[in-house]
Amino acid sequence: MTGGGDALAQLVLRDRDHECEGFGPGRVCVRVVAVAGLPTRAGPFRIVAFWNNRDAKEHVALVHGDVVGASDVPVRLHSECLTGDVMGSLRCDCRDQLTEGLAAIQREGRGVLLYLRQEGRGIGLINKIRAYALQEQGLDTVEANLALGFRDDERDYAVAAHMIHGLELRSIRLITNNPEKIRQLTAYRVEVSGRIPHVIPPGEHNRFYLETKARRSGHLIDLDALAPRSEQADPVVVAPAPQEPGAE
């Protein structure tokens, strides 16, 4: 178990009857409803489940170390990507961003990864696959989303901001290349005290996708400084589970 477990458990009791005016245009309100240990390949975490009044999507936070009431906490916002996170798609860098985000938090000794149910930059799984089909006809990510009648990025980070406030983080160091995340969180009264770059070396199938992020969406990625990496999957390394006190 990571540190800070008791403080996280107290948040469940604190939020039992929580209601507020909410964040953002949708007036989204979240509350902490459950906390449990979660050993992962990156190391041990606590997983914090959030209820929200906006929709039926269940967002979670993976927490390592003592973060409740802390300042300058490393935080990664990760939007759900079924094709990348689960199926290992090489069309994007989402799985690498997820695993490296967890690893970065472990290296920092503490931190939070918010796993947000905003598939396909907020357009949903089916529309993301429709966008893939348009990309196979020559459109880039932004053009495909626009052709489907969406903005280039439909994500709103009001849920993330409320989750950060709910964890009582006084300030955060955001693990990101996306300045829009910093802008939105700041607008929702989250103090972003610094940025930790989060650049994944491109592969053969996602280089154009990453170039589009940099050139069309303003992501802080210097692709010219990155050497292409092999897309052979890295071997899985399972971190040893921490022993309980008194265990042999």
Automatic annotation (TrEMBL):
Q: What is its EC number?
A: 3.5.4.25
In which residues is GTP bound? 76-80, 97, 119-121, 141, 176, 181
Q: Which residues bind Zn(2+)?
A: 81, 92, 94
Coiled coil start-end: none
Under the heading InterPro entries, the entry gives:
GTP_cyclohydro_II, RibA, RibA-like_sf
Q: Which Pfam families match?
A: GTP_cyclohydro2
The answer to whether keyword Metal-binding applies is: yes
Q: Which UniProt keywords apply?
A: GTP-binding, Hydrolase, Metal-binding, Nucleotide-binding, Riboflavin biosynthesis, Zinc
What pathway is it annotated to? Cofactor biosynthesis; riboflavin biosynthesis; 5-amino-6-(D-ribitylamino)uracil from GTP: step 1/4
Catalytic site: 153 (proton acceptor), 155 (nucleophile)
The UniProt catalytic activity note for this protein reads:
GTP + 4 H2O = 2,5-diamino-6-hydroxy-4-(5-phosphoribosylamino)-pyrimidine + formate + 2 phosphate + 3 H(+)
Q: Which PANTHER family match?
A: GTP CYCLOHYDROLASE II DOMAIN-CONTAINING PROTEIN, GTP CYCLOHYDROLASE II-RELATED
NCBIfam families, per the entry: PRK00393.1, ribA
Family, similarity comment = In the N-terminal section; belongs to the DHBP synthase family.
> What does this protein do, in the record's words?
Catalyzes the conversion of GTP to 2,5-diamino-6-ribosylamino-4(3H)-pyrimidinone 5'-phosphate (DARP), formate and pyrophosphate.
Protein name as it appears in the record: GTP cyclohydrolase-2
